[in-house]
DNA sequence: GCTTCGAGCCAAATCGTTTTAAATTTTTGT
DNA sequence: ACAAAAATTTAAAACGATTTGGCTCGAAGC
């Protein structure tokens, strides 16, 4: 059923019908109601592609998905989906096999200029991210999930990684730990730098010297968690506490600790960052995992919301949101063992 | 830059330019080459929405994403992305907050009739799935990831869950286990039924009676893995082996076993299904996890491929793929403890 | 009582392509 | 060298909506 035919059946012009359905003011309330009802009854719905052509709007928010199987990603998207349900806006996932961020830049360019999306969400930026520069240059609306240090004005949503890690580290220091190892995220990403800063600042507050041998970087996998933790535990003196970048990392750390015949929460304390996954909960681990916590799903929902605001005309420069992170203490953190204290 | 302007600059008609770029045969090779080169040089790209309007094609494959944070989902999509890279086809994720499958049916209807996608992928079907019936009725192309028992002809891709679980169970029986508990997926889904059948058949082959107290159903979370395993271990006589539905479930099972002071691989054997996640590998678990294994990412890539074939005109009735599942034995399975053997 | 105004509706232009059907040019056969 | 056939190219008609600008008609202003 097309507009023309539908309008004919109603005895109205296509113009009026279109306006009635779009909620324009110059159509009488009575007519609008009739049109709306008949549209449902006769099953008329505007052809989306015609609408897109004439309005220039795409009705979708773009997200680039790399080949790294980011488990966070699904949660974030699920949050977006939650917010977008009923909004008549979809999520368009643009495939890429490029591992390196820089190689992905042209893809963002194509996505922005292709007319397939109205805005994009940029994830895990570097401090000086080419994607941001490009999108700004193109004048294309985007929301940054994370932060960068560029002076290009833009909308962003981030969690306070720095403060989270600073508090986590401070807490370990309070418990008497002095050699605290950190398994951070991929090198070069802003959030990794923020976490690094939080870690260093906490040490500095107590006048404890920073030891580069206690910090590593890498993707959030159980494998790296295990390998890094194993190698840390071979040091003498060995660290008595770990700050882990993710739940998966924490799983690896737990295993490494156990494989050395040590006990998490007694011999070795562990704090990790928890994005709150429905399928893997810090509270259920044994021992339960102390964590800095912030819901990835909530971030996705809010991100979608902010993008909608952006598209509605709210200036990007107004959209800056820094979320606090909870620190939840459970059984995996305890006083530093006596013999290890200085 | 629009077609008209671009054509004018080339001294050709819009028609010829359009044909040249779309690779139609009735344009000379020389002209085609010139057009292609100039398009790159001048940066001309057809307006996607105009193309969509006139061709009726959407250039996207639809996927419905519920609010259950399925960690498999990201891997599957990532596989799709891998195959779709360079194809000029996107993945359109349609949000829903409806938990129940039946409630999602109208969404599939809207998606199919909205013109936003050319085909959809339907996940985790029930044996008699309303979504399949609807899509068939609408004559809309779709690929089923999983299987159903409907007589509606349709394309599908599935892994051989039944055989996988039968072999896993048989192997445990070979090792002398007699009380084998199974933590299956959500009730009602075809794959859960297939796994159930594989489990029962293996028992039947040895003349071992089926005990319903040894089977549970639920989502794939560490929490359920833990809770179910705990409660199984409270039975007397307790099971000596577990077949777990997922890696997350297995994590829970490991914890439950340890929390009872038992040792995985010695006191209790565990086999789980592994979808092959980059961030959580069966081989790295301690003890390493015996698993039935099939790559979710590969399935996503193949699914995208099959959808492409479907859209290219290959009959849906020809597209049936049943993937074998590897059984990989590691340290988590061992002989049944003496005292437990009958 | 005549003009002005606004509410409500409509005809036609527009968005930027693809594709049908026809026109032109080039090649081929004799 | 000429007609017929084949190879290129093109003008114009879709595709299905939104939107500009204009039209009609009754109410309000004076």
Descriptive account of the structure:
The structure is a homodimer. Helices cover about 45% and strands about 15% of the residues of chain A. Chain A starts with a helix and ends in a 14-residue tail after the last strand. Chain A folds into three domains: about 5-45, Orthogonal Bundle (434 Repressor (Amino-terminal Domain)); about 60-160 and about 295-325, Rossmann fold, CATH 3.40.50.2300; about 160-295 and about 325-340, Rossmann fold. Chain A has twelve helices and twelve strands. The first copy, chain A, has helices spanning about 5-10, 15-20, 30-40, 50-55, 70-85, 100-115, 130-140, 160-175, 190-205, 220-235, 245-260, 295-310; strands spanning about 60-65, 90-95, 120-125, 140-145, 155-160, 180-185, 215, 240-245, 270-275, 290-295, 320-325, 325-330. At the A-B interface, helix 4, helix 5, strand 2, helix 10 and helix 11 of A face helix 4, helix 5, strand 2, helix 10 and helix 11 of B. The first copy, chain A, binds a DNA duplex (30 and 30 nucleotides) through helix 2 and helix 4. Chains A, B: It comes from Sinorhizobium saheli. Chains A, B: InterPro entries: HTH_LacI (IPR000843), LacI/GalR-like_sensor (IPR046335), Lambda_DNA-bd_dom_sf (IPR010982), Peripla_BP_I (IPR028082). Chains A, B: Keywords: DNA-binding, Transcription, Transcription regulation.
